Amino acid sequence: MTISGAAVVGGVCGAPIKHSMSPLIHNAWIRAAGLDAVYAPFAPRPEDFETFVQGFRGGAIRGLNVTIPFKERALAAADQASDLASMAGAANLLIFEADGSIHADNTDGPGLLGAIAVQAPGFDVAAAPVVILGAGGAARGATAALLLAGAPQVRIVNRTVARAQALADAFAEKVIAAGDADLPALLADAGLVINATSLGLGGGEGPAADLTLTPETAVVMDMVYKPLRTEFLRRAEAVGRRTVDGLEMLLRQAVPSFERMYGVAPPAEVDARGMLLRILGEG
Ligand code: NDP
């Protein structure tokens, strides 16, 4: 791999950043594509985030993925934003244009839709309501992408109902907020159920939703990917529902980021999923 003085520089920033799998994914693609490029992890001090970003104006870095806790501040730091990033109120990708401007985008939503297309082929987002468990940044990004993809209704169910309501208020009338007590009725005609809480991370129990109440055709997705087969997904499989895992979403959100930063598609021959599964001890 060549990294010359003219190398295209991309990266990811977050606090903390050590756990990020993005450098592994992007550098594997860079190597396979034979690019003069690099993708580096950054952990700016939270109080210095804006200074850190503004310093890259003019193209010192081509692009920067952004993760917890900076996604909202990344949107605010940009000069222009895609519809998706504006709707989501958060950006996970900043592109530093040669004219000095910063463009914000959000690839988490396309990542979610891409994962569904791969692991639940033929699923029609527009056919039935979606239930999202959780009301944090991930739920917000998912809501924006699902609405743009034609979901007839998005139902946000969260432990803290006020947070679900705030999310619903930020969107149009197609988004409703609810608490756990309403969940059984909301699951009964759901086409897609997504865990966007951190429940299940590290092998613990997932959200308490009774998945037997969902239609047989429903698809169940978990954004959590450690472990790959979360307790929530195992429960969905046990009642015969199709499932979509969070690792595929992670990989799919990286694809448009790579294309925007390096100007080429990730080489198809790289088995990035296999590489991550081995790293996660699942391979
Ligand atoms: P936030 O911290 O913004 O939100 C966390 C959500 O989980 C809130 O809705 C919170 O509810 C809920 N929650 C946390 N603990 C509990 C609990 N004990 N009981 C009930 N609800 C709980 O996180 P994000 O939205 O950024 O991320 C959510 C998850 O999605 C994380 O696991 C993250 O790793 C994953 N993710 C995966 C991605 C992928 O590519 N696969 C991309 C982005 C995120 P409350 O409001 O009541 O506190």
Question: In words, what does this structure look like?
Answer:
By secondary structure, the chain is α/β, with parallel strands linked by helices. Helix content is 36%, strand content 17%. It has eleven helices and twelve strands. The chain has helices at residues 22-33, 49-54, 71-77, 83-88, 108-119, 137-148, 161-170, 183-187, 231-238, 246-262, 272-279, and strands at residues 8-13, 37-42, 63-66, 80-81, 93-96, 102-105, 130-133, 154-157, 175-178, 192-195, 219-222, 242-244. Strands 2-1-3-5-6-4 form a six-stranded mixed sheet, sandwiched between helices. A six-stranded parallel sheet has the order 9-8-7-10-11-12, sandwiched between helices. Strand 11 (219-222), helix 9 and strand 12 (242-244) form a beta-alpha-beta unit. The protein is globular. The relative contact order is 0.14. The structure holds NADPH dihydro-nicotinamide-adenine-dinucleotide phosphate. Residues 68, 108, 111, 134-139, 158-160, 163, 196-199, 201, 223-225, 246, 249-250, 253 line the site of NADPH dihydro-nicotinamide-adenine-dinucleotide phosphate (NDP).
